[in-house]
Specification:
- The strands form four sheets. The chain has a six-stranded parallel β-sheet with strand order 9-8-10-11-13-12, with helices on both faces. Strands 1-2-3-5-4 form a five-stranded parallel β-sheet, with helices on both faces.
- Helix 1 crosses helix 5, helix 2 crosses helix 3 and helix 16 packs parallel to helix 21.
- Helices cover 39% and strands 13% of the residues.
- By secondary structure, it is an alpha/beta fold.
- The protein is elongated.
Length: 679
């Protein structure tokens, strides 16, 4: 076996060659003859600038992982690095395992080049179907905190190695995650920051710092910095620095490895007289007309030939002896395989308050192990001070960071919950949408559910703290993995939390208020848990309803209970009250697994009763579920924005969530129902 410098150079050249080939070529993929216009794609598409540095980092990380004592788990922060991920996976055979048509020979490489950027449904960006794809890099900034969360659940003998772009370091999520590491002492995460000097269209800010300033920046945040310039310092130097960084990380010293390089190095320096190398023009492929421009065609041939593919591959396109030997010793560990779902945790006491419900269930799951709470500095405000400063609780004042940490913890098999104010939850939107995309992609592994507990409603809070927009956005996605749960009392909250914590593959958003409210009927709790909805007989008339009041959550239940005597007395109609625990039951069963079929709708809601839906969030969220499925008068009362600060009673009156408001809405509905009956 040769030294690491020679071995890793074979890996780097092969990955970079295959990446450049799949962007540009459709035939003659191993340069067995001079390139002709027919060998080249008419419209090459792909991101080139990140490839050389990403391939360099992956080659070294996987070689050290395969030959050392510690498993290194690489994560790619930039989605644009997908072309390098795919190239590496083709070389190792992981791509063939996911897509058999991409065999490790000349025919398989030709198929890959022709298929790129679709790659038989995997796409051109980072994919969970392949190693280094446990984090979906469709957005920038989340990889570092995701790696922190994954490291919490990965166990001893592993280091999580996120490969970050310098542009990512300008995002608030990454910037906050450097500091958030202080809340996770001893977490084995070794970031490799790819300083190639440019974002997509302009110079990056971090790469503009000289080595002294860069070291001071890292040190001020509590990180020890190592810096290597590639390829100038060579493979041996980088490999030694990586090994030292791993040792420091395992010893509990937070270390970051800065990898300086020129954007697009090893590619064309100029194209049509314009500087490409070391500029933003190298971000995507600089040779867009090689199929029709002979100068660009010759430049492409010279570029690809510089990697010496004849030394890398046999005549039939298999890895040559040296490359095959190098590939055989690389290590590509993934995050842990999913663990069996735990059994529901028995709750020995009957919770009588929001705080009792939450703390009782969480303490029980934390005792069972592999469970964590993530929350901003608001646990005491949310009446959950008992959960603060526990060894299994992480508090950082940045929802985006916490959301990524929980997602990474889930990806490594851990279970947990993020607890936040309802008003700040929209900060999680981009990360949650990306998480849902990842779960839908080919090759994604099942994970414990992402659980989000939202409390401190705007109904009870200040003007600036009212925003239920997250649930509105999520329901509009129509992703069947989403559940929006609105328990009406602590007993229901207890059961909902336990169910969510033991579930797999779902995004559970639980909306529950911390303030005490009047009791609600308890006899239908089992039915609500089983089906997500139930008629409350104690509040309903026995005859078929003329008006059905649908309550979604604790405040709506309290408002409806107060309004019912007046509705019956003043309107003189039979009323039924239906409690909705899972909002998605109101949606189309063709989209939502819990959606009510027509027969169930009629049975629960009444065949022709007018519907008054009372919800915690935006009425638009309910309308997105109802659509045009209900051929009867319907009105939805929920959150309304105001023109300035208002008291809670004024806010409720403006929205119509009072006895007077519900009575007025019921009157409008009955008039509309009468008109419908006369048509």
């Amino acid at each position: 076996m040769t030294g690491p410098g020679t071995t890793v150079d074979l890996l780097w050249r092969a990955q970079t060659y295959v990446a450049a080939a799949q962007i540009h070529l459709r035939d003659n993929v191993l340069l067995r003859r001079p390139l002709s216009p027919g060998d080249v794609k008419a419209r090459p598409a792909g991101h080139w600038g990140t490839v050389p540095g990403t391939a360099w980092a992956l080659a070294h990380i996987t070689l050290l992982s395969g030959t050392g004592r510690t498993q290194l788990v690489p994560l790619l922060g930039a989605g644009h690095a997908g072309v390098a991920q795919i190239a590496a996976a083709w070389l190792t055979g992981h791509l063939t395992a996911a897509r058999p048509q991409f065999t490790r020979d000349e025919e398989g490489l030709a198929n890959l080049c022709r298929s790129f950027p679709e790659v038989a449904g995997l796409g051109s960006e980072v994919t969970p179907a392949l190693p280094a794809g446990d984090f979906l890099g469709g957005r920038l900034g989340g990889c570092l905190p995701f790696a922190q969360g994954a490291a919490l659940a990965s166990g001893p003998g592993r280091v999580i190695v996120p490969v970050l772009g310098d542009g990512e370091c300008e995002t608030p999520t990454t910037a906050a995650a450097w500091l958030a590491a202080h809340a996770l002492p001893g977490t084995p995460v070794l970031p490799v920051v790819h300083l190639n000097g440019f974002r997509m269209g302009a110079p990056s800010l971090l790469a503009d710092l000289d080595e002294r300033a860069l070291t001071a920046y890292a040190a001020g945040l509590g990180w020890n910095a190592r810096t290597v310039t590639v390829p100038d310092d060579g493979h041996e130097v980088f490999h030694a620095e990586l090994a030292e960084s791993v040792a420091e990380t395992l010893a509990g010293r937070r270390t970051v490895l800065f990898m300086r390089c020129v954007k697009g190095w090893s590619g064309p320096a100029t194209v049509s007289g314009q500087q490409v190398l070391g500029t933003a023009h190298a971000h995507k492929t600089p040779l867009t007309r090689a199929a029709t421009d002979s100068v660009q065609l010759h430049a492409l041939e010279a570029w690809l030939s510089a990697y010496r593919p004849e030394e890398l591959f046999t005549d039939d396109g298999h890895p040559g002896t040296g490359l095959a030997t190098a590939l055989a010793v690389t290590g590509w560990p993934r995050l842990k395989a999913p663990r069996p779902a735990p059994a529901p945790v028995p709750v020995r006491q009957q919770p009588v308050s929001f705080a009792d419900a939450v703390t009782t269930v969480i303490r029980a799951h934390a005792r069972a192990g592999d469970f964590r709470v993530f929350s901003p500095d608001e646990l005491a405000s949310n009446r959950l001070a008992e959960l603060a400063r526990r060894p299994w609780t992480t508090e950082v004042l940045a929802e985006e960071v916490l959301g990524e940490q929980l997602a990474g913890f889930n990806a490594a098999g851990g279970r947990g919950v993020l607890i936040s104010y309802e008003a700040f939850a929209p900060l999680l939107t981009t990360g949650l949408v990306s998480l849902l995309k990842q779960q839908r992609m080919p090759g994604a592994c099942p994970r414990p559910s992402f659980n989000l507990l939202l409390t401190s409603y705007g109904w009870h809070n200040t003007y600036t703290h009212g925003d239920p927009a997250l649930t509105t956005t999520l329901l509009a996605l129509e992703d069947p993995a989403i559940r929006v749960l609105t328990p009406a009392d602590p007993a229901r909250l207890t059961a909902v939390l336990d169910d969510a914590f033991t579930s797999t593959g779902q995004l559970n958003v639980i909306v529950a208020g911390k303030h005490p409210l009047p009791p609600v009927p308890a006899d239908t709790l089992r039915q609500e848990l089983a089906r997500g909805v139930a008629v409350w007989p104690a509040l309903s008339d026995t005859q078929p309803p003329v008006l059905t009041v649908v309550v979604c959550g604790d405040l709506p239940a309290a408002a409806a209970a107060e309004a019912l005597p007046r509705i019956r007395a003043e309107l003189g109609v039979a009323v039924r009250v239906v409690s909705v625990l899972d909002l998605t039951v109101l949606g189309d069963p063709a989209v939502w697994p819990a959606g009510l079929a027509t027969a169930e709708q009629d049975f629960l809601l009444g065949e022709d009763a007018a519907l008054l839906v009372v919800t915690l969030g935006h009425p638009a969220a309910i309308w997105s579920l109802l659509k045009a499925r209900y051929a009867r008068p319907v009105e939805v009362i929920g959150w309304r924005e105001t023109d300035g600060p208002r008291s809670q009673p004024d806010l409720a009156a403006l929205a119509g969530m009072t006895a007077e408001g519900l009575l007025a809405a019921a009157g409008r509905l009955l008039k509309a129902r009468t008109r419908c009956d006369t048509w």
